[in-house]
């Protein structure tokens, strides 16, 4: 494994994350509203028409103090580099809404999004790989045709539409009342036994997890089938059959590794889910994760939290791309680090 390739890829991450942060910081500066406007509005509705105040209900001195407190008395470029300097020291700033460090606020929401990200990752790969292989061996038969139709339907339905449909059908909307409509656990969760807690937890996450997994599972299964079918026609497979090897050994010792390369590229899609979760799914199922936090922070103009989430999501995404590239090279010996470096040059 080439260390120079790994270092080169890490080096490319820096301008990528830097560029994303520049764009998002610029967008937060031109968006209407902000912490000062929110404070002015609160005071305005609480003390309109006070003597010695401006039309907003606060004194000019207090207004200027607010501007200085939030750093808006400095040029945008100076504010950006001040923020970058703080980030490099591990300080993402303080939330306007929660009045706590941004990193603490985001980390407090990690368990929900991380749980669904990990479950989604393992479920997709554990199910899609064997199903894709089976579909490849039953290509053109009734099982392959029926399952392909269902997979195409699952992939074509947006996850939030599927989430709403699952709620309406299975969570007491109009048909069945099998699963809870939201939350991660029941109100009496702490009073339950260990087995009952596990059962209650999975009972709550079944519907949102299905909405998370469906689209990616369908895509991964179809990718696995196509890759497996392509590899089955290669010369090395024909040679293995000519030597008398069984189909099981050919499938799992020869074809499988080469068929996994398209799946490796999908790993980068999950890294953002690990951190960000899904805004709409968390909103629909009332899950207190990072996705819902990002939505609420945008509505409340809590720009430090928004910037912190975007920065961490961008970092997670480029790490995912790096992992995908490395796995691709490891799985396919025909791809060399030297050729990859030439492509990057």
Low-confidence stretches: 47-55, 337-345
Task: Categorize the overall geometry.
Answer: globular
Q: Residue share in helices? A: over 70%
Mean pLDDT: 79
Rg, Cα atoms, Å? 26 Å
How many helices? The count is 17
Number of beta-strand segments? 0
What sequence of helices (H) and strands (E) makes up the elements? Answer: HHHHHHHHHHHHHHHHH
Q: How big a fraction of the residues is strand? A: under 5%
The biggest sheet amounts to:
none
The structure class reads mainly alpha
- The first-to-last residue Cα distance is 19 Å
Provide a compact summary of the structure:
This protein has 345 residues and is mainly α. It has helices spanning 3-30, 35-46, 60-69, 76-88, 102-108, 110-137, 142-156, 159-170, 194-232, 235-242, 247-259, 261-264, 267-276, 279-284, 290-299, 303-331, 337-344.
Walk me through the structure:
It is a single chain. This protein has 345 residues and is an all-alpha fold. The chain has helices spanning 3-30, 35-46, 60-69, 76-88, 102-108, 110-137, 142-156, 159-170, 194-232, 235-242, 247-259, 261-264, 267-276, 279-284, 290-299, 303-331, 337-344. The relative contact order is 0.14. It is globular and about 90 Å long. The model is unreliable at 47-55 and 337-345 (pLDDT under 50). It has 17 helices and no strands. The longest helix is centred in the middle third of the chain and has 39 residues, at 194-232.
Write a concise keyword list for the protein shown above.
345 residues, mainly alpha, disordered C terminus
Strands, helices and their partners?
Layout: H1 3-30, H2 35-46, H3 60-69, H4 76-88, H5 102-108, H6 110-137, H7 142-156, H8 159-170, H9 194-232, H10 235-242, H11 247-259, H12 261-264, H13 267-276, H14 279-284, H15 290-299, H16 303-331, H17 337-344
């Amino acid at each position: 494994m080439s260390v120079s390739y790994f270092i080169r890829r890490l080096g490319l991450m820096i301008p990528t994350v830097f560029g994303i942060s520049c764009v998002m910081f610029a967008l937060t500066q031109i968006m209407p509203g902000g912490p000062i406007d929110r404070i002015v509005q609160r005071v305005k509705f609480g003390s309109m028409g006070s003597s010695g105040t401006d039309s907003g209900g606060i004194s000019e001195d207090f207004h200027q103090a607010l501007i200085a407190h939030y750093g808006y008395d400095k040029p945008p470029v100076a504010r950006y580099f001040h923020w970058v300097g703080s980030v490099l020291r591990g300080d993402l700033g303080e939330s306007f809404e929660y009045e706590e460090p941004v990193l603490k606020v985001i980390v407090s929401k990690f368990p929900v999004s991380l749980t669904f990200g990990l479950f989604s990752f393992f479920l997709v790969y554990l199910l899609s790989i064997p199903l894709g292989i089976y579909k490849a061996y039953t290509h053109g038969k009734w099982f392959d045709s029926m399952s392909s139709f269902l997979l195409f339907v699952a992939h074509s339905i947006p996850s939030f539409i599927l989430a709403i449909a699952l709620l309406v059908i299975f969570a007491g909307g109009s048909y069945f009342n099998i699963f809870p409509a939201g939350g991660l656990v029941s109100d009496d969760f702490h009073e339950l036994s260990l087995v009952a807690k596990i059962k209650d937890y999975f009972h709550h996450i079944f519907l949102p997890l299905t909405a998370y997994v469906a689209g990616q599972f369908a895509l991964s299964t179809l990718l696995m089938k196509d890759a497996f079918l392509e590899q089955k026609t290669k010369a090395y497979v024909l040679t293995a059959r000519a030597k008398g090897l069984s189909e099981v050994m050919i499938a799992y010792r020869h074809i499988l590794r080469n068929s996994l390369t398209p799946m490796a590229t999908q790993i980068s899609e999950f890294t953002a889910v690990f951190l960000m979760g899904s805004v709409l799914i968390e909103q629909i199922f009332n899950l207190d994760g990072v996705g819902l936090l990002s939505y609420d922070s945008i509505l409340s103009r809590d720009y430090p939290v928004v910037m912190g989430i975007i920065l961490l999501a961008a970092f997670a995404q480029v790490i995912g791309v790096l992992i995908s590239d490395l796995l691709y090279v490891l799985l396919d010996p025909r791809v060399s680090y030297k050729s990859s470096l030439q492509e990057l040059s």
